[in-house]
Amino acid sequence: LWGACDGGFTPRPLGPLHEIAAEAGGRLRDLYDVDGDRSDLFAEFTAVLDAGPGVTGVVVEDLHWADEASLDWLAYVARRVGRSHGLVIATYRDTEPGPDDLLGKMLGRIAGQGSTRRMSLPPLTLDGVRRLAARQDPEQIHSLTGGNPFLVSEVLAHAARDVPPSV
Length: 167
Hints:
By secondary structure, this protein is mostly helical. 48% of the residues lie in helices and 8% in strands. The protein has helices at residues 15-24, 26-33, 38-51, 68-80, 102-110, 126-133, 138-145, 149-158, and strands spanning 2-4, 56-61, 86-90. Strands 1-2-3 form a three-stranded parallel sheet. Strand 2 (56-61), helix 4 (68-80) and strand 3 (86-90) form a beta-alpha-beta unit. The longest helix is centred in the N-terminal third of the chain and has 14 residues, at 38-51.
């Protein structure tokens, strides 16, 4: 299951959960659609984690743009995911803290959960960029992007001498 936080000025409350509910369907979608009690909605999400025959994988992207309700939901999930058959992966850019550092506060609250792991991904090395760059100048790309994988992929996809606007 997949959901993402949007970087709008007025993000939809529980936006990533809305996307997940639409994909998962069933009672989770019904509870989201009726704008019911958040406790029921959150509990149903944890039930979805246990519903499949194997491990249910969930990806929530761009937490640096998360609204308060989405952070509350993820804190709820972090306290319970260790007892489920689910794996929740949440991504964020630590170079883009949200307003009032809400994300940092939530990460601090869940850090002590036994089922929570934080992984920092280092930038690509020059050798890593060289493997991806094919016919382009890896030294120039590495210098321009600092090895940031997203920026490297954008420069490589643009395949021109100018820096793409996304970088």
